[in-house]
Write a structure and sequence with these properties.
- The protein is an alpha/beta fold.
- Strands 4-5-6-7-8-9 form a 6-stranded parallel beta sheet. It has a 3-stranded parallel beta sheet with strand order 1-2-3.
- Helix 6 links the parallel strand 5 and strand 6.
- The longest helix has 16 residues.
- It is globular and about 50 Å long.
- The site of zinc ion has 3 residues, from strand 1.
Length: about 325
């Protein structure tokens, strides 16, 4: 069973026009492609990331279950979108409900919205059957802010995990410093019954920090999307890292049971297509021989889906 715990459904109205325009400017300059060409070619692949297209891509890759979300950029420098955060999540819910048992959604919300955020999560879980919460701290907040503690209490009460971005990489004009996983460590310490997923395994600067946090906290998990290009170009490093995860002794639940698979579809499709990422992971035991590392196929199965199945009670 293959479960992708990190993917997005995207509609133009869920993010502000300023967000789209500024990204178009940044990418057109960085890629040396005229803005109008970029808008016509790359953007449709991202803007029209609806459930139907995602399920096709999942089938193509052999992925059985996808966990999807939007992203609440409304309080960031991007500004509020045409749709409110509630409308955005409602749209995601409508999309997902067309594919029961195949797609599940988590509620994207910025905890700075205070009571409104708490009410939205209650509605998302109780009325829309959403199974978690998505944070993107690069929008401008440290997750350990005491003002968010009532929000975390509510998540514990509702028994839903928090999925939080941990990587310097984000939308170009968001701020990486807020995504340092050490702030999630503080939340995990204060709320031992709250489960937290460090998305992207910390990226390159924080990956070892993520490993240490997982060693210290029983309630912290991770997911490997964002490592597609590194796995390819720094294969040695990535395989050693996974090997450490699969073989490290921990007094708590072993790390090999707390690492999950993700693709960040459709955002990294230009880096490596989802189906190739799945194949890359499946081939690890063979690939690793070249580096004198031994991988058990049973651990690869845990990474690809069994850990997520258990974590999400699917
Ligand atoms: Zn993502």
């Amino acid at each position: 069973m293959i479960i992708n715990v990190h993917s997005h459904l995207i509609h133009r109205n869920m993010w502000s026009e300023y967000f789209w325009d500024r990204n178009a400017n940044i990418f057109s300059e960085a890629m040396n492609v005229p803005k109008d060409v970029l808008i016509k070619t790359l953007f449709p692949r991202i803007v029209n990331a609806h459930a139907e297209r995602y399920v096709e891509a999942m089938d193509d890759a052999g992925i059985d279950v996808g966990i999807v979300n939007g992203t609440d950029w409304g309080m960031s420098a991007a500004g509020e979108a045409k749709w409110s955060v509630e409308e955005q999540n409602q749209w995601v819910n409508q999309q997902v409900s067309e594919y029961p048992d195949k797609l599940y959604a988590i509620c994207a919300v910025d905890p700075r919205r205070g009571d409104k955020a708490i009410k939205l999560v209650e509605k998302a879980v109780n009325e829309w059957s959403m199974i978690g919460v998505k944070f993107h701290p690069t929008a401008g907040y440290y997750p350990d802010n005491p003002e968010f503690f009532p929000f975390y209490k509510k998540c514990v009460e509702l028994k839903v995990p928090i999925f939080s971005h941990t990587s310097v990489f984000s939308v170009p004009f968001m701020e990486g410093k807020y995504a340092d996983p050490i702030y999630l460590d503080s939340v995990a310490a204060r709320f031992p019954d709250l489960k937290i997923v460090m998305l992207h395994f910390g990226g390159l600067p924080w990956v070892l920090k993520c490993v240490e946090i997982m060693n210290a906290r029983h309630n912290v998990y991770t997911e490997i999307s964002g490592w597609q290009s590194r796995a390819f170009f720094e294969t040695d490093y990535f395989l050693k890292l996974l090997h450490k995860m699969f073989n490290s002794a921990s007094l708590l639940t072993p790390l090999k049971d707390r690492i999950m698979f993700g693709t960040d579809w459709p955002l990294l499709e230009t880096v490596l297509e989802q189906k190739d990422w799945v194949e890359w992971i499946k081939d690890i035991p063979e690939k690793a021989e070249e580096y004198n590392l031994k991988f058990k196929r049973s651990n690869i199965k845990k990474l690809l889906g069994l850990n997520a199945k258990e974590f999400l009670n699917l």
